[in-house]
Design goal:
The protein is mainly alpha-helical. It contains two helices and no strands. Helices cover 69% and strands 0% of the residues.
Length: 99
Amino acid sequence: MSVSAYFASGLLLALVVGAGIVAIVMIRGRWLASGDDRGDWERTLVDYKNLRDQGVLTEEEYRKIRTLVEPRMRIGSPGLPGRRRPPSGDPPGPDIQRT
C-alpha cells in the first residue's frame, strides 16, 4: 500500500470520527435543553400563582391554568414508584340508591 492510500484512509477515518463527535454534541445539547424546559414551566406556574395571590387571577382561573401546565411539567420526569396518581376529573359523589 502506498503512502497516499494510508493518507486517504486516515483522512476518511478522521472525517467519520469528526461527524460522529458533532452528532453526539448536537444530540446532547438538545437533550440537556429539554431538561431546562421543566424549569421554565415551573417558573411560569409560580408566576401565575403570584398573580393569583395578588388578586389578578381568580382561584378558578389559576386551577385551569395549572391543569394545562402541570402535564407539561411531568413530561420526561421519572415516575415515583409506590405513589398513586390522583384521580382525574371530579371526585366521585356519594352513592345514591335508587328504588
